[in-house]
Write a structure and sequence with these properties.
The chain is built from eleven helices and ten strands. It is α/β, with parallel strands linked by helices. It has a single domain, classed as TIM Barrel (Alpha-Beta Barrel), CATH 3.20.20.70. Bound molecules: iron/sulfur cluster.
């Protein structure tokens, strides 16, 4: 077990981690009240459309793939981006492991076919087995949550397409009491990330507070599901301090950002200033990255 450093140090090229999350697209068709990545500040200040033009996004992905072994395509909802398959193919062609984080509402058979051969991992964001709870959380399209059967079908389709499956769950006071063991056994992800709801200034403050989950409730949720490890599912719990300064993240405007001080702090644009110069402007802790199991075998056998 690695110790967590008290304060993340200024990032340097030497401590660049092997993986990066590219939040390529601000628009989303869901309205999760806890969403850490709403990017309304980005839209208001620098990028009214909420995403880079296609050619710039492609250049950025090519640059990221030179330095990061894994690129996670996140949003917003990345499947709303018409050129996502081209971005993923560009990353794959340069040798990167690729991952998608999706709310699952747009992952139909055609989309999976377009991503076949270039997408290595799919992460489904699922917080509850109850559509009512999802609707109350805002994990719903026009107020309508996806049925449980939809997620189970998606999991099968993802595996059938040769992609590896991960699930992300945000633990709030609305789902912390659930026992999701049977559901996860049916879904059968390789990894299940459990995130304790986090307040991020300027992203979800003003909406997230009623969802706060006490640490003991989060710990109890994790403990209740530990038995899933006997089924081959790796549990990856992340409490609030594990999530700060432990990710390399790029915003829809093509800038690194960190969340060390409570809100997002953005670097200069990577395409204009270069990877190293932009990276030196955010804070990152490799110890925290290691502490949250960031070094798992994402490219090979699990
Ligand atoms: S689906 Fe994802 S990006 Fe969209 S609102 Fe929910 S957490 Fe945010």
């Amino acid at each position: 077990m690695h110790s967590l450093s008290a304060t993340p140090s200024p990032a340097t090229a030497q401590v660049m981690p092997p993986s990066v999350n590219f939040h390529l697209w601000e628009p989303c068709n869901m309205r999760c009240r806890f969403c850490f990545a709403t990017f309304q500040d980005v839209r208001k200040d620098v990028l009214p459309k909420g995403h880079l033009p296609k050619q710039e996004a492609l250049k950025l992905v090519e640059l990221l793939a030179l330095r990061f072994q894994k690129i996670t395509f996140a949003g917003g909802e990345p499947l709303l981006c018409p050129w996502l398959p081209e971005l993923v193919a560009a990353a794959k062609a340069r040798g990167a492991t690729t991952m998608l984080v999706t709310n699952g509402s747009r992952l139909d058979a055609d989309t999976l076919a377009r991503l076949h051969g270039v997408m290595d991992w799919v992460t489904l964001s699922i917080d509850s087995m109850s559509p009512q709870t999802h609707a109350a959380l805002g994990r719903a399209v026009h107020g309508k949550a996806l049925p449980v059967e939809h997620y189970l079908t998606l999991a099968e389709r993802i595996r059938a397409a040769g992609m590896r499956l991960k699930v992300n769950t945000v633990v709030t006071n609305l789902n912390a009491g659930e026992d999701q063991t049977a559901f996860l056994r049916e879904l059968r992800p390789e990894r299940w990330k459990l995130l304790r709801v986090l307040s991020v200034e300027g992203q979800n403050t003003g909406k997230v507070e009623p969802l706060f989950c006490p640490r003991e409730d989060f710990d109890a949720f994790v403990a209740r599901h530990r038995g899933l490890e006997h089924d081959g599912i790796v549990l990856v719990p992340e409490d609030n301090e594990d999530m700060r300064g432990s990710y390399a993240m790029v915003d829809p405007a093509g800038r690194f950002f960190d969340n060390v001080q409570g809100g997002h702090r953005y670097s200069a644009p990577i395409l204009q200033h270069g990877l190293d110069a932009a990276w030196s402007q955010v804070q990152f802790s490799i110890d925290r990255f290691v502490g949250r199991d960031g070094f798992y075998a994402f490219g090979g056998e699990s």
